[in-house]
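Sorry, explain these tokens?

***
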Amino acid sequence: MYKRMKQIFERPALYLKSEAAFWNEEHISKQMLNAHLDPDFEGASRKADFIEKSARWIGELLPSNKYHKLLDLGCGPGLYTERFAKMGYQVTGIDFSERSIDYAKKAAKQRGLDISYHCQNYLNMDLDMIFDVSTMIYCDYGALSTEDRRSLRNYVYQHLNAGGRFLFDAFSMEFYHQFKEGTSWELCPEGGFWSGDEYMLFQGNYKYEGYVTLEQRILMTDDKITPYYLWNTCFTKESLIQEVEETGFKVIEVFGDVAGDEYHKDNTTMAILLEK
């Protein structure tokens, strides 16, 4: 027991993956969906006013009459895909949360929107379809390991037409500098986000070489201990450009965010527009 506890609470190896898929855990996935759908909460998704501004900007930057077939990676419950569909895109959304995809499918049907949703991992997607544009929003790119980011870029490249565009955002060095290391404990006798039953939560925030951060969460209930690892790789403008160019993408422009703000080094995010 001691060895198991020691192993769990040691500082994790870089990019160690969670054994438990929290996005499909019954209680946590419900809390995640509620967080996505809260228009005033910025946690699972950005706030509704930013999403609206962002979707409009993307529609102007990559108009649907030129980039008709759109693939949204990590689409969640459809906050962007629904807006894209209303703009005239032929939209496909991918997410590995069964609860989010189920919600998105039902919502699209209720609203008369023709959106194709797939519950699968975009790291091994095979849609048998080629797109004009792909989006990946809310800094999911940096949550992946170096190897997985390379796989993702290759898959997106393979699923784009010649001249197709790929737009995504990532955390910057300013985010890394602002990230605070530390550990804490939380006791939730009435349950909470991580479980409907009583639990204790260990929270560890760590920085790693290569400008990587980790938010480690260890959930302890009566019958089990479950660690979760939330990684973020942070980039300079130059390091992100160098990385994507290795795949063969051409860099069109770098922005401050996915709503078109101007890039500045003191922004905590950046967005990059690529062309195949």
